[in-house]
Amino acid sequence: MAKDAIEIARSYMRHRQFAKAIDILEARSRYYEDNATYFVLLGTAYLYIGDTGSATVNYSSARRLSLTDTNLLLGQAAIFLKRGDTDRAISYYIEILNNDPSNKTALRAMEFIRLQGDYDTICRWTDTGKIETFYPPVGFNPSKLAGIIIPLAACLLGCVLALRFFDFKMTGKGNRADLSSLMLTLEDRAALQETDLSSGAFGYLLSANEIAASYDRAQRYFQDYRDNMSQIEINRLLNSNASVQVKRKARTLMSYLDVPSFDTIKDSPSIRAVQKETPLYLDCWVSWSGRISNVTSINGNYTADFLVGYENMERVEGIVRLKFISTPDIVLDKPVTVLAQISTEEGKLLLKIRSVYQCRKNNVIEKEN
């Protein structure tokens, strides 16, 4: 028997294939204009891929049709929780518990807010993905059954991974690239610090052990495909009293880092962290949602103000300048998500845009810098 779009999308979401679920649902939108379940499901899929702007739009559409859907309320609460607006999040969780006193997700979220709900902890949970614990549940992932049904295959996979990890520890080679030429030699480790501190201003004065640990973390993060975290450690070294040789190897490692996409970016820092310590985040990539205003063009270069976190027009987390290489093909009165690289211009924070995402119905615009 043929399945409808909602059933197919739910199946994809159980397998954590959220982009495919979005494609299916968006393609059938004309059939579900008055279906609250459709909008809740679509909003939840967007939430899981990190597009809170589109999630908010779809949840708002669902709320016009249904005010008591538990997954709708969980999704809206999660969006406020991610922004650190715990008061608004709590109001939604209370509404859920009034209708369903035993709802485990709402109970866990309330306990989290009570014990750990400070802004810094929320940022860390968002950064690591642990915040998804409080998203609307999408069901058990059937793909995990393979580890139960075929224990021999799981055992074999574990052995292979163990051998590869052992090889990395012994030879300095990971799954991503051979960094053996960038390993710190005994000679490097004997002179990790710059001896003449009068030769320049250093943002970080590090001990020899701290320099070695930071460089080792930069390599490890690279092999784990966490390029933003690797870039942070590289920046720490480049702005420190590390030796010329360490900085040279750090710059070489930086050349290995990839340009991410919306699907691959990891460890996107918060605007609060970037504004507090900008040099540490230079050249990192961010995926931030908000609204764009004041677009201007000077000598073919387009710039604009980006109101971070203002996608629902309730709270601005920060304002930063954006730079485009061509006319930004967006609707200014709708929320957007940008993929951009952190930079500075005349001492002020600047985002160099690579991609702008504004609802799949309108297109995804890729702009190379």
Quick recap:
The chain is of the alpha+beta class. It has 16 helices and six strands. The protein has a five-stranded mixed barrel.
* Low-confidence sequence ranges: 165-174, 360-369
Helical content stands at 40-55%
Order of helices and strands: HHHHHHHHHHHHHHHHEEEEEE
SS class: alpha+beta
Strand order of the largest sheet: 1-2-3-5-4
Mean pLDDT: 86
Number of helices: 16
**What Rg, in angstroms, do the CA atoms define?**
23 Å
Major sheet attributes: 5 strands, mixed, barrel
Termini, distance in Å? 48 Å
Strand percentage lies at 5-15%
Q: Tell me, what's the shape? A: globular
Number of strands: 6
Explain how this protein is built.
By secondary structure, the protein is of the alpha+beta class. 47% of the residues lie in helices and 14% in strands. The chain is built from 16 helices and 6 strands. The chain has helices spanning 5-14, 18-27, 36-48, 52-63, 70-82, 86-99, 104-116, 119-128, 146-149, 151-171, 186-190, 208-223, 227-238, 244-254, 271-276, 278-281, and strands at residues 285-298, 301-308, 318-324, 336-345, 348-357, 364-366. Strands 1-2-3-5-4 form a 5-stranded mixed barrel. A hairpin with a 2-residue loop joins strand 4 and strand 5. Helix 12 packs antiparallel against helix 13. The radius of gyration is 23 Å and the shape is globular. The N and C termini lie far apart (48 Å). The relative contact order is 0.08. Mean pLDDT is 86; it is low at 165-174 and 360-369.
